[in-house]
């Protein structure tokens, strides 16, 4: 029969439209302002007692809240008023201190039946909904100290190989200072150290002891050290953000030693803060003999062990880390080292079978200290500190290689977190969060409202034009246009794409292109009717003969959108994503859906004229 779709095709169209409404529906439910709380470590337990303390503090501060919930790993409490978020955060921080991470959040309100389908609201960019802003400061002095420690060990090796004796060799105030017995030893030491470490240069000052040597890093080395520390930290942060799955984040350098991280549309801001702000590293050290070592406590007890001062390898040698479980069901991390790290580990363990090897977990944290300002108000000041604990101390049974595992972790969450940090790359220097804030729409609420209004007015004019020019067929086009927007929003929500203001511009362009396809089809039907074809034949010819032109126009636009996505960044990519998805959905609605509606009205019937 002419102009009739088979039943299976109609059912597929209905299914696609139904799924579009389901996955677009979560965007009708605005999120609740909320406060999220988690521990500084993934092993910390947050239970009903912590929730009770938080609720009592908010009640005392007359902050309206509801639906508090704690799952053992995190706590989420919703607020009635978004304006009270910052105040609620300050109240909770003053109550609990610095042991917990308190972050602002937007809690989804999607109904359970929609969540059961995996439906979630679309992410909005910084220019539409704001996000979380972190300003981190890189501790370049710590990077300098680490480099000097390495140079100190190399200098000792050089003097030992050259058989040069010395009274002392140590680091004082970012300088390597050695004391010698006579001028001959001093001259021989200077020659050996300079040959071993070209990054060091001798410094001579007035009044300096003639039997002492003072070395400092060359200006070029110091500059490279600072630049490399910033670059490595930037790379590591970008990797961590990618692990979090944040869409269109901003990670950029600011000034000499600071990094800005902006995360749009983040749901779990506490998790983001812990992962981004944490500087965690590993050191593998052999157990020390006698008093020639440093004492560290275990994470899960007050017991201590003596480890050698110099690590065999650090987290910088880790190329891959994956969380898993051992044969007893306990969490572990499987680690793979690079070639240098594998060689060092093999060389060290080959000669120390039977001794114990310790895994030292190093965290650079911040704690909040209370003080009173001049007005007598309580002020919370972040103070950085370093925490070093042994997470594993096991006897070396055989020579280790590039692959091995770490046990002794408290929970699966902690093993996953440690694997993520190691996999993302070690930080060259500690970082501390010096500023955290939520940022509102960068273009302002008024500009956003005007943008949405302009889209609404433009669409209304297009709908009226289609009705006036193409009458009943214009109604079909308008219905297909509305369905196109629904399916487009569903696609963006399902794929986790981020909608920005340039993305809205892409939607406007999509609307025009969708209508353009129907204009081509309907104009072709009119031409076929004027040429003397019967209505049924004119409908079939109109859709078939306009199809090639529509494919050509949309395909060339899709190619341009893909190029924009590949070479663009930020807003340009947002525009390209929306435009690409819009082209695909508009092809479906403009050709398939309108044809299905026309077939339902005119298909299989004998008609004399068309309302077009």
UniProtKB/TrEMBL annotation:
Q: Origin, by domain of life? A: Bacteria
Q: Which UniProt keywords apply?
A: Cell membrane, Coiled coil, Membrane, Protein transport, Translocation, Transmembrane, Transmembrane helix, Transport
A single Gene Ontology biological process assigned to it is:
protein transport by the Sec complex
Q: Does the keyword Transport apply?
A: yes
Do you know which InterPro entries this protein is assigned to? Acrflvin-R, SecD, SecD-TM, SecD/SecF_arch_bac, SecD/SecF_CS, SecD_1st, SecD_SecF_C, SecD_SecF_C_bact
- Intracellular or extracellular location(s): Cell membrane
Q: Which residue numbers delimit the SecDF P1 head subdomain domain?
A: 296-429
Q: Which Pfam families match?
A: Sec_GG, SecD-TM1, SecD_1st, SecD_SecF_C, SecDF_P1_head
Q: What is its main location?
A: membrane
- Residues in a coiled coil are 145-172
Q: Which GO terms describe its cellular component?
A: plasma membrane
Q: Molecular function terms in GO for this entry?
A: protein-transporting ATPase activity
Q: How does it sit in the membrane?
A: Multi-pass membrane protein
Residues passing through the membrane, by range? 450-470, 475-497, 503-525, 546-568, 574-598
Domain Protein translocase subunit SecDF P1: where? 231-288
Domain Protein export membrane protein SecD/SecF C-terminal residues, every copy: 433-600
**Domain SecD export protein N-terminal TM residues, every copy:** 3-104
Q: What does this protein do?
A: Part of the Sec protein translocase complex. Interacts with the SecYEG preprotein conducting channel. SecDF uses the proton motive force (PMF) to complete protein translocation after the ATP-dependent function of SecA.
- Family membership: Belongs to the SecD/SecF family. SecD subfamily.
User: Quaternary state and partners of this protein?
Assistant: Forms a complex with SecF. Part of the essential Sec protein translocation apparatus which comprises SecA, SecYEG and auxiliary proteins SecDF-YajC and YidC.
Concerning NCBIfam families, the annotation shows:
2A0604s01, secD
- Mind telling me what this protein is named? Protein translocase subunit SecD
Q: Which organism is it from?
A: Gammaproteobacteria bacterium LSUCC0057
């Amino acid at each position: 029969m002419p102009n009739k779709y088979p039943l299976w095709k109609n059912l597929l169209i209905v299914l696609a439209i139904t799924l579009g409404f389901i996955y677009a529906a979560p965007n009708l439910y605005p999120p609740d302002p909320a406060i999220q709380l988690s521990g500084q470590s993934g092993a910390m337990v947050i239970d009903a007692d912590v929730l009770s303390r938080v609720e009592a503090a908010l009640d005392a501060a007359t902050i309206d809240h509801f639906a508090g919930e704690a799952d053992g790993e995190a706590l989420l409490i919703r607020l009635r008023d978004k304006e009270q978020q910052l105040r609620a955060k300050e109240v909770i921080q003053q109550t609990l201190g610095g042991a917990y991470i308190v972050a602002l959040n937007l809690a989804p309100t999607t109904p359970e039946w929609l969540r059961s389908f995996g439906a979630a609201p679309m992410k909005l960019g910084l220019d539409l909904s704001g996000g979380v802003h972190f300003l981190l400061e890189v501790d370049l002095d710590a990077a300098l100290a680490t480099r000097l420690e390495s140079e100190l060990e190399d200098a000792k090796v050089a003097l030992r190989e050259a058989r040069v004796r010395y009274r002392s060799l140590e680091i004082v105030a970012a300088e390597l200072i050695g004391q010698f017995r006579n001028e001959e030893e001093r001259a021989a030491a200077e020659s050996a150290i300079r040959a071993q470490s070209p990054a060091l240069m001798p410094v001579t000052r007035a009044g300096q002891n003639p039997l002492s040597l003072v070395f400092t890093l060359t200006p070029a080395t110091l500059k490279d050290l600072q630049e490399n520390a910033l670059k490595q930290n930037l790379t590591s942060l970008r990797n961590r953000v990618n692990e979090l799955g944040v869409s269109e984040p901003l990670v950029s350098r600011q000034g000499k030693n600071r990094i800005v991280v902006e995360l749009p549309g983040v749901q779990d801001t506490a998790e983001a803060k812990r992962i981004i702000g944490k500087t965690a590293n590993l050191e593998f050290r052999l157990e020390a003999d006698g008093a020639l070592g440093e004492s560290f406590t275990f994470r899960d007890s007050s017991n201590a062990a003596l480890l050698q001062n110099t690590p065999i390898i650090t987290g910088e040698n880790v190329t891959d880390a994956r969380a898993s479980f051992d044969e007893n069901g306990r969490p572990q991390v499987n680690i793979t080292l690079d070639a240098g790290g594998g060689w060092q580990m093999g060389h060290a363990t080959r000669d120390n079978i039977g001794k114990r090897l310790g895994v030292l977990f190093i965290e650079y944290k911040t704690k909040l200290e209370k003080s009173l300002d001049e007005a007598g108000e309580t002020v919370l000041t972040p103070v950085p500190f370093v925490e070093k604990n042994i997470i594993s101390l096991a006897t070396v049974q055989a020579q280790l290689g590039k692959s091995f595992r770490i046990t002794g972790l408290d929970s699966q969450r902690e093993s996953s977190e440690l694997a993520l940090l190691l996999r993302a790359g070690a930080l060259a220097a500690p970082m501390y969060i010096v500023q955290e804030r939520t940022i509102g729409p960068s273009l302002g609420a008024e500009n956003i409202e005007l943008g949405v209004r302009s889209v609404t007015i433009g669409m209304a004019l297009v709908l009226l034009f289609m009705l006036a020019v193409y009458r009943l067929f214009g109604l079909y086009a308008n219905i297909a246009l509305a369905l196109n927007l629904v399916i487009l929003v569903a696609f963006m929500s399902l794929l986790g794409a981020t909608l920005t203001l340039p993305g809205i511009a892409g939607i406007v362009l999509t609307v025009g292109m969708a209508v353009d396809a129907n204009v081509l089809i309907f104009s072709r039907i009119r031409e076929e009717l004027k040429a003397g074809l019967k209505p049924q034949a004119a409908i079939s010819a109109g859709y078939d003969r306009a199809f090639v032109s529509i494919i050509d126009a949309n395909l060339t636009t899709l190619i341009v959108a893909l190029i924009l996505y590949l070479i663009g960044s930020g807003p340009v990519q947002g525009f390209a994503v929306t435009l690409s998805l819009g082209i695909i959905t508009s092809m479906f609605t403009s050709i398939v859906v309108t044809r299905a509606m026309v077939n339902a009205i005119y298909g299989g019937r004998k008609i004399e004229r068309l309302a077009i």
